[in-house]
Amino acid sequence: MPNNTGIQTQDFGVRNQILADVGNQSAVGCVVSEALGVSVGSQKIAKAGTPVRLYLMNLQTPAVLATASAAMTGVLLHDVDVTHGSNNGTALIFGFVNVNRLDADVQTLVTAALGNANASKLVTFLKVYGTSASDNNEAFCKFKITGLYRW
Fold first, then answer.
1. Which residues of the chain have pLDDT under 50?
2. Deepest of 7, 20, 67, 100, by most Cβ within 10 A of its Cβ?
3. Residues with Cβ < 8 Å from 31, sequence gap 6 or more?
4. CA dist., res. 55 & res. 57, Å (int)
């Protein structure tokens, strides 16, 4: 039956799972500043994995980009649409991030943020390789980390 009632439908879902281990992680809700967004088509998106400085004693304060001078306290767990201004998001404050699942521009931001000696040591970045090249995009795959096999 065609949709003639004026109701709009949208598909939702996580486009990019950045975690290397979904079981060992902790995240908090945060406000994502429009300044963290980059143009993706007609939208402005703050990308998953973007290193951020959170004010953990006041999560209503918008997160800012972590740099060599602003210590990283977490990373965005998912893409956040900031096309129309600041928006709610989720920041990973403890966990393991698979660098292979981050966009190249986000990897550059992470490298810069890790240049700060005060960057959080609770978020660990590692490269996880699947059993084939295409497995790096799968949420669940057998992977190898320095000789340790995990399922």
1. 1, 131-151
2. 20
3. 59, 60, 61, 62, 63, 86, 87, 88, 89
4. 6
Predicted pLDDT at 4: 57
Indicate which CATH number applies to the domain containing 30. 2.40.300
For the chain, the domain total comes to 1
Residue 136 in any domain: the answer is yes
Under DSSP, the state recorded for 133 is G
For residue 2, is it within any domain? no
Neighbours of 99 (CB within 10 A): 16
The range of the structural domain enclosing residue 100 comes to 26-150
Task: Judge whether 15 lies within some domain.
Answer: no
Task: Confirm whether 99 is domain-assigned.
Answer: yes
Q: Give the burial class of 109: count Cβ atoms within 10 A of its Cβ; 0-12 exposed, 13-18 middle, 19 or more buried.
A: buried
| Tokens encoding 36 | 């963290």
Average pLDDT, the chain: 83
- Between CA 26 and CA 121 the distance in angstroms is 13
SS3 state at 112: helix
Burial annotation 78-87 (CB, 10 A radius, 16+ → b, else e): bbbebeeebb
